[in-house]
Specification:
This protein is of the alpha+beta class. It is 21% helix and 36% strand. It is built from three helices and seven strands. Strands 1-7-6-5-4-3-2 form a seven-stranded antiparallel β-sheet, covered by helices on one side.
């Protein structure tokens, strides 16, 4: 049985880069495959840089599938979250969130969260349950390597 606390998985790290640089890497979908720790993202067309709630960006997965990602939380330089779905479908309820908090001028605390507490698609439950903080940490660590380079 799954307990409510397992519905939300989080990873965090302080990165030796400024918040603006880090946020730009997250908010530009064409850059996401470079730091995706799940090795799930193949590519995204350029020109989709997210700037507000309500935008939708499109990704191609490594298995060839297409995902539309509806931005549901956004604060420039600080917060972005989206609900993925198959093209034309309503989101099934799992959310990916990134929070960027400056520590000082040259370091930033980054928190990555996967929340599947509202997931309604039973076909996605096994994958959601298998998503661990280690996979999220891999994304944060790859993001750090890119931002610090």
């Amino acid at each position: 049985m799954t307990t409510p606390s397992t519905y939300v998985v989080t990873a965090r790290r302080t990165i030796a880069a400024d918040a603006e640089r880090i946020f730009d890497l997250i908010a530009d979908p064409s850059l996401q495959p470079r730091w995706d720790g799940n090795d799930n993202l193949a590519e995204a067309p350029a020109g989709q840089r997210v700037r507000e709630v309500g935008e939708v960006f499109v990704m191609t997965l490594t298995n060839g599938g297409i995902r539309e990602n509806r931005v549901v939380e956004f604060a420039e330089g600080r917060l972005i979250a989206w609900l993925p779905s198959d093209p034309g479908d309503a989101p099934p309820g799992h959310l990916w969130r990134w929070e960027v908090e400056p520590v000082d001028a040259t370091s930033t605390l980054v928190t990555h969260t996967y929340d599947w507490s509202r997931l309604t698609d039973e076909n996605r439950l096994a994958r959601a349950q298998a998503t661990t903080s280690a996979e999220l940490q891999a994304s944060v660590d790859r993001l750090a390597a890119l931002a610090e380079s």
